[in-house]
Design a protein that fits this description.
The protein contains 6 helices and 10 strands, in the order βββαβααβαββββαβα. It is an alpha/beta fold.
């Protein structure tokens, strides 16, 4: 099945200004996602959706297509990325006459992914019976054991109180954190639904060290440290 990859990269980032083109390991952050997507044989095109001419120039330098500039109304802090996904698919529909068979989203915020992670997501999707495949990591906190919420009376309690007492985290149901390593989806599902969990979603587990999600300077510094450790092992 033929897939088209998209990388969505806004120019504005309050958590870490200039994040998407900030140098990591000698190249802009967005370059990592572009290179990962270009390496996957099943991916036939790699497109970047951005509202920034500066990001667009960097993306083209590293081999991605930037055939349009994303409208400003789809690039605010509170703009649903789902709508940016749909906008990108509409561009393909208008310019090629058809939707791609598979949509792959490769976020800039997970530069420590491996190409294998994208391949695994495609493999899971191609098994069928899923509208979308996401990536997850094992959660360090559990809503059944050590995640709390504030009650109306000012006290705190477990997010999901279990039916019986849980003495150890290992006794709680296994839960996962969603990761931003990769998303693989049916374009028709994106165009006809409004949220990920409106459909059938399956997951591929990724090690925590490959799933760092960069949103703040601390996240970026952690990624730099993990990248140095990886390079030392090679």
């Amino acid at each position: 099945m033929k897939a088209i990859a998209f990388i969505f990269a806004r120019g504005g980032s309050k958590g870490l200004p200039g994040k998407n083109i900030r140098p990591l390991g000698g190249k802009p952050l967005i370059a990592w996602s572009i290179e990962h997507a270009l390496t996957v044989n099943r991916i036939k095109r790699v497109l970047v959706s951005t509202d920034s001419e500066e990001i667009a120039a960097v993306a083209r330098e590293y081999g991605a297509e930037v055939p349009f500039i994303r409208p400003a109304e789809l690039a605010h802090d509170n703009s649903p990325e789902w709508l940016a996904w749909r906008h990108a698919l509409n561009y393909l529909l208008e310019t090629t006459g058809v939707l791609p068979e598979i949509m792959v989203t490769v976020p800039t915020t997970a530069p420590l992914r491996m190409v294998l992670d994208i391949e695994n997501c495609l493999n899971e999707y191609e098994k069928g019976d899923a509208d979308m495949v996401i990536t997850v990591t094992e959660a360090h906190r559990s809503p059944y054991f050590n995640m709390v919420k504030t009650n109306t009376d000012g006290t705190v309690g477990l997010v999901n109180p279990p039916q019986s007492a849980i003495a150890h985290r290992q006794e709680a149901p296994v839960v996962y954190d969603m990761a931003t390593v990769c998303y693989v989806a049916s374009p028709k599902f994106i165009m006809t639904h409004n949220a990920m969990f409106d459909g059938r979603v399956k997951a591929v587990q990724v090690p925590a060290e490959r799933a760092i999600d960069i949103d703040t300077l601390l996240d970026f510094q952690i990624a730099e440290c993990l990248l140095k450790i990886r390079e030392q092992k090679q």
